[in-house]
Amino acid sequence: MELPASLVGGMVVGELTVHGWDLARALDTTLYWDDDLLRYVHNEVMATADQGRAMGIYGPEIPVAPGAPLLDRILSLTGRDPAWR
């Protein structure tokens, strides 16, 4: 199946960000991302989260406070608990 390059690019950057967080948590370390990158990833994940959940790629959204950090909101959209250690 062919997909637009912008869609694939957004998926790849999102995967690297979210799985980078997974790995950092598993190693008990913290990673920091540029705010522009996080805004981009948040927009990409927001646009595809429902489809990702329908496909079983993402778990159910985890509630976070409306003012939560952007990374926490991204993680919650993918079904990850930002407080997980």
- Please count the helical segments: 3
Molecular shape: globular
Largest sheet: none
The percent range for helix content is 55-70%
**Approximately what portion of the residues adopt beta-strand conformation?**
under 5%
- Calculate the terminal CA-CA distance, rounded to whole Å: 37 Å
Order of helices and strands: HHH
The average pLDDT is: 93
Q: What structural class do the secondary elements suggest?
A: mainly alpha
Domains (count) = 1
- What is the radius of gyration computed over CA atoms, rounded to a whole number of angstroms? 13 Å
Low-confidence stretches: none
Give the beta-strand count.
0
Quick summary:
This protein is mostly helical. The protein is built from 3 helices and no strands. It has helices spanning 5-26, 35-54, 70-77.
Structure description:
The protein is mostly helical and 85 residues long. It has one domain. It contains 3 helices and no strands. The protein has helices at 5-26, 35-54, 70-77. Helix 1 (5-26) packs across helix 2 (35-54) and helix 2 packs parallel to helix 3. It is globular. The mean pLDDT is 93.
Q: What order do the helices and strands come in, and which of them pair?
A:
Layout lengths: L4 H22 L8 H20 L15 H8 L8
Helix pairs in contact: 1-2, 2-3
Which features characterize this protein?
85 residues; mainly alpha; 0% strand
